[in-house]
Design brief:
five-stranded mixed sheet, single chain, 116 residues, 5 helices, 5 strands
Length: 116
Amino acid sequence: MSAPLALVRVEQHGAVAVARLAGEVDLSNAASVEDQISRGLGEVTSVAVDLAGLRYLDSAGLALLSRLATRMAAPGAALRLVVPPDALVRRALQISGLAEAIPVDETVEAALVALR
């Protein structure tokens, strides 16, 4: 069985980065996804992680988001999650408590406004 596919694309929007995740994030690829996000951020301290394209997110993916939140807790840094109402991973974020720990927006545009 092959590892689930996770696509990571990081875009720069001025001083804010948007990390768009698609596919599946689980134990088999969470470390690689985290590395790709980290490399794409560079020196940016404000990040929106777009989870709209995820079909699956397990505890390893939730832990990845938690570590990213810890990293972005430094003064002057900010993290927001983009989770549309119909996103498949919304329930996992709610059950885990991450939806209360990390600000959630329904669109990338809303997250960008909040981060600027």
